[in-house]
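To whoever picks this up:

The nightly regression suite flagged 1-deoxy-D-xylulose 5-phosphate reductoisomerase as changed. Nothing in the input moved, so I suspect the structure step. Input below, exactly as stored in the fixture:
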Amino acid sequence: MSQLISKKLVLLGATGSIGESTLRIVRQHPERLSLLAIAGKSRWEPLAEIAREFGVRHVGIFDSDALDKARKSDAFPADTIFYEGVEGLIELACLPEANLVADAIVGTLSLKPALAALECGKDLALASKEILVMAGKFVTRAAKANNCRILPLDSEHNAIFQCLQGEEIESVAKLILTASGGPFRDFTTEQMASVTREQALKHPNWDMGPKVTVDSSTMANKGLEVIEAHWLFGLGRDQISVVVHPQSIVHSMVQHVDGSVIAHMSPPIMTFAIQHALLYPDRAIGVDKPIDFTEALQLDFRPPDYGKFPCLRLAMEAMAAEGIAPAVFNAANEVAVDAFLDEKIGYLDIARVVEGALETVPSRDPQVLDEILESDAEARRIAGEIAESLTAKA
Ligand code: NAD
Ligand code: MG
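Regenerated output under the current build:
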């Protein structure tokens, strides 16, 4: 029996869907995981509850008004040290006692905190796929330079990570990412035209935050994940494919050069992937019921329909184009999803905004991070303009 590894965890995005699942795992394994710091955007009441329950002293609240309220309340333990804004997240990511930083902040805001964590020598458990899509070259470079691990929390990537244990990457022919296909996998394009916010926010298999739920329904999520896989495992576009698997039981597969396929299975609940990443290389009893093979189980697979899901096609094209194209895809998609959730544009407009931004933002091959940040800002501005023009037409 190996010696128990105990890790001190910084959890960025503690109040979200991944954050909550992470807390369930910390609760289950107090001897292996202790919560050193937490952070969220503005909902300070749940952060106070977490701080009290887990005895956390370091608390980041991004939003300054919310932070003011939190300070004035007596909801937090008396010895709480508060951190504000991105600078606060960076400080938390580099706390000297920490040895694992979990990044579960939606969007790209955590790019600098995640880079800081790696530069300070911390392993990074990563849910925020957007930062890899935007700046994978710089994030993976920082991990390598500082001898740190990026442990995937995203279920597909965690599945591939598990399938690759003990294997040489040279023996891999293909990574096969599974996709549920989302709630509209059997809709026609005409039916999709009238999809509402409420419909897009209901995923058939997964319970997730709003942005990733909409991304799953457009399959932009799978597109982001293909690019995420490219950076995590260092394989090119022709070695990463997508298959629709409506049951979400097989979380991804690795096909080797000899034709063997290794698949990872678990119920469609994020705790399986999160626990694996947090405890790696250890394993322990999980928090949710595993698959019960005494009950009938059917697994279906079919190819994706790129015509019906243009966001998936656009992501694949952005990956092939390289340079800043993936960052533009990601930024435009974030703007478009926000506009859709604000009911300013229609469902099919999401892909129109993304395609318009990809056609407009000039391509470049970023040598420094600032160039990505500039292109990201430009893509957001252009996507915003396209979204406004579509709102005006509606
Ligand atoms: P969510 O919307 O439920 O939660 C987002 C979290 O980020 C919240 O804690 C929020 O406070 C925090 N946050 C947002 N902006 C912030 C800011 N400016 N400063 C500090 N904190 C901020 O989202 P989620 O579903 O938990 O997803 C988080 C990430 O994980 C996303 O990148 C998503 O793609 C990825 N992911 C999620 C799932 C899932 O099942 N939910 C699965 C795989 C990957
Ligand atoms: Mg996923």
